[in-house]
Design brief:
single chain, 262 residues, alpha/beta, 7-stranded parallel sheet, 3-stranded antiparallel sheet, 10 helices, 15 strands, 39% helix, 23% strand, elongated
Length: 262
Amino acid sequence: MNIEPGRLTKKERHELILSEVRRSASIRISKLAWRIGVAGETIRRDLIELGEAGLINRTYGGATISLMTSEPVIAERGLTLVEERARIGRGAAGLVVNGRIVMIDGGSTTYEVARSIAQIRRDLTVITNSIGVASVAGANPSFRVILCPGTYDSREAAVLGEDTVEFVRRYNADVAIIGASALNGEGPSDMVSGAAAVKRAMMARSLSTMLVVTNDKFGRNSLERVCALSEISDIVTDSEPAAELRAAIDEAGAELHVFAES
């Protein structure tokens, strides 16, 4: 059933296109034009914009869902979406209670969370596999910081591997704070399998899980699924996700915290 033409904004068209591509894995321009009720040339322009944003792969006469197969090193990621990560960091820190045990995995967004936590919280025990997180958390003299052993990954500035996972399993925590390379209705996913394993280990030893993720990860897939959305307690982000992802989050029972630009 097609939609009455002329009633959708470009943003709404983009959301509907992404929804259709995710549902079908691939889709033709002619079908999208009929479904949305606009000219094929309008759909082509929309696909160009979505392709340039990395949200889809353009094909001859249509599009397929974009699978995130690579990711910049953490130092490069930290130079993008700087204000968005800072807002997420401050917002997530406000959800952490003094005196708790917190596990934090490696990542550019989790680093911002750790930095904000160190500025406003006290008497935390922080367990992490990230060199950067350990460094900024250790700047707070009231914190006890436990750095995991493991094989150092220079791209992530973190330790990974079996030794890291086994070490994490020795501890209990109130909350695990994790990041992700991508997030869709099936849950968060990560490009680095070793990182995904550490996230799952932290989640298994924590009473709750907080996912911190920037808006550019919405509606995307990466190499390895970390968990189902239903296993996440809180999602902290910088902008409202598209309607389909928001509905999946609500259905899964995760609490969404959006710290948008004021």
